[in-house]
Amino acid sequence: MNQSYPLRIVILMLTPIIILLLGCNNDQVETTTTNPTVQSEYQEIHRPQFHFTPKANWMNDPNGMYYYEGKYHLFYQYFPDSTVWGPMHWGHAESTDLVNWDHLPIALYPDSIGCIFSGGAVVDVNNTSKLGTTENPPIVATFTHHDFKGEKAKSNDFQKQSIAYSLDGGSEWIKYKNNPVIPNSEKIKDFRDPKVVWHESTQKWILVLAAYDKVKLYSSPNLTDWEFVSDFGIEGDTRLWECPDLFPMKVEGTDEYKWVLIVSIQKDAPNEGTATSYFIGDFDGKEFKSEIESQEWLDWGTDNYAFVTWNNVPKEDGRILGIGWMSNWQYAQIVPTTSWRSAMTLPRELKLVKSEESYSLHSLPVSEFQTLRGKTTAFDAMNITDEKVLEGTFSASQSELDLTVDLKKTTASSFGIKLQNGLGENLLVKFDKNESKMYVDRTNSRKEKFSDEFFQNVHSAPVDFGEEKMNIRLIIDAASIEIFINEGELSFTSIFFPTKDFDTISLFAEGGVWSIDDSKVHSLNSIWKEKN
Ligand code: FRU
User: Fold this and answer.
1) What was the pLDDT predicted at 99?
2) Ligand 1: does its nearest atom lie under 6 Å from the Cβ of 342?
3) Fewest CB atoms within 10 Å of the CB: 28, 61, 156, 214?
4) For 261-269, what is the mean pLDDT?
5) Whole-structure pTM over 0.90, yes or no?
6) Is 464 a residue of the active site?
7) CATH 2.60.120.560, the chain: domain bounds
8) Ligand 1 mutation pick, 7, 57, 58, 60, max ligand atoms within 8 A of CB
9) Residue 531 has what pLDDT?
10) Which residues pair with 93 in a beta bridge?
């Protein structure tokens, strides 16, 4: 029934014996992140220069994000003893601007109930939990306790929901004495990733968690006593759902509010493997009713999973901000990075847009990201008929391209952007007008293949070429490309690992002329260089 864990456990068995010895049921397992082989300069091959990565070792989902007293907190699934998945802790980092990050000590360690799987955190401003005071509100994290011993013994109730709280803004965490707060009485094997939101009209907290092929909703006046209220799923769906998130959102340009339910899907996403999806609808404090016809994809690429949002972003800011894990369970544990594995996507702002037919979520890098721009190379209008190398003051593996395509004048049947190095390795982003599609081809991005799934298929997403202009924004870091079409109407995230960094960007057109109005390439600064 569970497609994910057997595979991960096989890989886990190949990891150092220490993992098996540590297990997950030790009280406050003493672990250390010091690893003599780790280069801490953040300059290793494939090391992202402006995406969040842990200094060393394994990271997956973003967890427990909240804003408090001028700082955005980011926690994450972390295994401090290896570069592959193992007994999970919550790593911790903070930022004042969502661009530069400071690493903090591990926030949550495995304990006698289990290790610490994904979840969220809320600032309990009115001290409903009575775990702090109104003057000094507690921050309450909700997470899944995963008990490996129970899993091995096939008990089926080895995942339970627990809480921990912090009374100092997020440095020290205290596990709640009556954990778990939601035991797994129905014995559901996949029962995890609790995320909480405040529901204003019923004055209750709502917790959403993934229960195999659906989500379950619970409500509580105080974050400690939870009552089951409803299920939400798609009839006949048998895929594994993970990392849900539920929140209200204002529709752009109106006073209308809708509820958004984000769900990550572990298998059979549009480009295979894992991806993040969403539903939009109404929520009355008990039941979520989707209003869009089908589940939609927040990001069409292969590498934006477990995307969830920040809690407690100030009302005057008003943005819905989130971040995803920039990898895919198909190959996350075997990508050829050295001392660490995985990066997060850029933090993104979500926008809820209503068109004549329906609602949709758009996503864009947060505006703060622009502070990383260095020199800008501007290009006059261009007509590409074959291939043109872009030259200017930027490095191909750390840059941002902003192209405005004149679709009326463009006669090319396909056109696109190519990143390449002198070893004949490349990555293509190609737009096909006849097929109304964008393709991302990383099949030739590295000579030495490390995984079949990573290299075997060209990935695609639907693109509407019906307008007069189309904006293409590409953000390239050492090992990733994030593509945003028309202000985030479509977003597509893909990772890659060339043997040598890509050093050339070119534009190409096939079967006619690709007409581009203004375009710019920004060089981007590293967020790590001076810090280590
Ligand atoms: C999603 C996930 C979660 C789980 C965590 C374990 O990537 O499988 O469902 O809590 O990873 O690390």
Assistant:
1) 98
2) no
3) 28
4) 93
5) yes
6) no
7) 371-524
8) 60
9) 52
10) 74, 103
- Quick one: 58 exposed, middle or buried, by C-beta within 10 A (0-12, 13-18, 19+)? buried
Q: Does residue 193 line the site of ligand 1, with CB under 6 A? A: yes
Q: Look up residue 248 and give its two tokens.
A: 């209200």
Cα–Cα distance measured from residue 122 to residue 271, given in angstroms and rounded to the nearest whole number? 33
- pLDDT digit string (tens) for 461-496? 999 999 999 999 999 999 999 999 999 999 999 999
State the span(s) of the chain assigned CATH 2.115.10.20. Answer: 7-25+62-365
Q: In ligand 1, which atom is closest to the CA atom of 117?
A: 10
User: Helix or strand or coil: residue 324?
Assistant: strand
Contacts of 496 (CB under 8 A, 6+ apart): 427, 442, 445, 446, 479, 480, 481
Return the HEC string of 165-233.
Answer: EECCCCCCCEECCCCCCECCCCCCCCEEEEEEEEECCCCEEEEEEEECCEEEEEEECCCCCCEEEEEEE
Beta bridge partners of 355: none
Report CA(66)–ligand 1 centroid distance (Å): 19
- Whether 190 lines ligand 1, by a CB cut-off of 6 Å, is no
Question: 166 vs 88, 129, 136, 209, 498, CA distance in Å?
Answer: 19, 12, 10, 22, 42
Q: What is the pLDDT of residues 389-443, one digit of tens each?
A: 999 999 999 999 999 999 999 999 999 999 999 999 999 999 999 999 999 999 9
Site to substitute for ligand 1 among 11, 151, 243, 341, most atoms within 8 A of C-beta: 243
CATH superfamily of 7-25+62-365: Glycosyl hydrolase domain; family 43 (2.115.10.20)
Q: In the structure encoding, which two tokens stand for residue 410, read together?
A: 């463009």
Counting atoms of ligand 1 from 1, which one is nearest the CA of 242?
Answer: 9
Assign 285 to helix, strand or coil: coil
For domain 371-524, is the CATH number 2.40.100.10?
no
Confidence of residue 293 (pLDDT cuts 50, 70, 90): confident
Which whole number is the average pLDDT over 273-278?
95
